[in-house]
Amino acid sequence: MIDPDSGRPVYRQLADVIRGQIDRGELRPGQRLRTEPEYVDEYGIGRDSVRKAMALLRADGLIVTTRRGSRVRPLPDVAEVALSEDTVIRTRMPTQKERRLLGVPEGVPVFVVERPGAEPEVLAGDRTKLVVKAAPAGEGHGRSG
Amino acid sequence: MIDPDSGRPVYRQLADVIRGQIDRGELRPGQRLRTEPEYVDEYGIGRDSVRKAMALLRADGLIVTTRRGSRVRPLPDVAEVALSEDTVIRTRMPTQKERRLLGVPEGVPVFVVERPGAEPEVLAGDRTKLVVKAAPAGEGHGRSG
DNA sequence: ACGTATTTGTACGTATGTATC
DNA sequence: AGATACATACGTACAAATACG
């Protein structure tokens, strides 16, 4: 299943295998992965390679890891945030402080929303969906100044 | 400068040091970091710790690494993309294919823009800025259905 | 054209720490 | 308290890409 001589690094091969299992739904959100020693034994590879595979999947936001093991990242409820006119939206990875504050795991980016005349707002990328609403009929289109 | 007994992991301490240098502008975008062996010698730590520190900074989008060393991530030119009504925007990390296709380095998320009646569009998060434009005066406000 | 030095990448091992059950 | 499982941190060795002479 994993070929050390294939040219593709062992840890990437393992990451590919697990990514495939997630994509095909064999591993569902919230479901526990195997433990590191189990992957070591199962594929006859070093623990280092297993850990690097996990790190890859984590950085891509596919799994989350705690002291009790790794799980497929659960899909949180997504809140809709309406955007008003002249708003600028960027995305980037959060700082450590923002990660703590928002409670976002590794591999989850944030939105930075800048509304005119307001401080930039940082929103968790896994729990937020931005929506440009249709303007209410008969009312202004932002021409107030 | 780095204290192995401080409770904070060595590799995080090194990452903190470098992050500070970037934040304070002592290391500017595009500028080369020291090599791994240099950090090893300078702080008397293992190469493993240095590499993990680099991996952290890379995952946060602060640096990029090639076979010739690591540099502070250059700031690309940002293109403005206008959003129309009823558009939904999400953000997440790119898949490997998207990363290749868009040419985004590690630690850079993407926008997923869903316009009504169109395929979702994936935009590089480091080169794109979304803007909600003011509606043109006297014209429709999306009341077409 | 070729080899060499530099630098990061991969992959293994070992040991110990620490949180959780 | 003991077992389990991930986290940290060191070491070694070799591979591979790049740059330089």
Q: Would you count the extended β strands of chain A for me?
A: 7
Cα gyration radius of chain A (Å): 21 Å
Give the helix proportion of chain A (percent range).
Answer: 25-40%
Shape of chain A: elongated
CATH architecture assignment of the largest domain in chain A? Orthogonal Bundle
Describe, in plain words, how this protein is organized in 3D:
The structure is a homodimer of 145-residue chains. By secondary structure, chain A is an alpha+beta fold. Helix content of chain A is 29%, strand content 22%. The first copy, chain A, is built from 4 helices and 7 strands, in the order αααββββαβββ. Chain A has a 3-stranded antiparallel β-sheet, with no helix packed on it. Chain A has a two-stranded antiparallel ribbon with strand order 1-2. A two-stranded parallel sheet of chain A has the order 3-7. In chain A, helix 1 (10-23) crosses helix 3 and helix 2 (36-43) packs across helix 3. Strand 4 (88-92) of chain A pairs antiparallel with strand 7 (128-132) of chain B, so a sheet runs across the interface.
